[in-house]
Structure prediction request, 186 residues.
Amino acid sequence: MQGMKAYLNGAVVVTTGDITSFDVDAIVNAANSSLLGGGGVDGAIHRSGGPAILEECRKIRSTQYPEGLPTGKAVATTGGRLKAKHVIHTVGPVWHGGKQGEDILLQDAYRNSLAVAESLGAKTVAFPAISTGVYGFPKDRAAKRVAEVLKQYFSTPRPIQTVYLVFFSSQDAELFIREADPLLSP
Ligand code: AR6
Prediction:
């Protein structure tokens, strides 16, 4: 898979495209607490992956999370018809101005998704820019928070080989690189 820029000895690759087409072990979904679908990347993943994903989400709701998946947590389902074997559903924070724990919750969403990916034995994982769409988290600030998580995560040996950060536009990818570069460059 081609990237615009690689960081942390190739463990993190910044790229653009439609995450539903990625041939990786797991893709992450920017879901909502209901786990029952929505718009944005969530809608695209359910459309491309088919009904098996929603079926497993319903099961998770009826067993593990009857009240919904809390913000910052992550769970896995099949990838259904996607190339990716697994979808990791996480819920990013809704932006309320930045003083309601949004930074930590966004980082929790990435960290817990990485932990789930590890538990699945995934070697390659693709993330969308969680919370930066309808949830309104500022993209520049999100870039810094994500860079911090990945820098810390890959500061010790990890079973995950490559994390792809997938942006929907090259403008978004460039913005990420601008903000994250000072934190991720050697
Ligand atoms: N591939 C990669 N990135 C995408 C794609 C795609 N196919 N589609 C959108 N993006 P959003 P959120 C980018 O709104 O802010 C849903 O309704 C998009 O440009 O999908 O976490 C859920 O059900 C943006 O930068 O997620 C929730 O209710 C990023 O993905 C709510 O939206 C995230 O945008 C979650 O909001």
About this structure: Residues 18-20, 30-32, 38-42, 44, 92, 128-135, 166, 168, 172 surround AR6 (CB under 6 Å). Residues 52 and 111 are 25 Å apart (CA to CA). The chain has one domain: 5-184. The two ends are 23 Å apart (CA to CA).
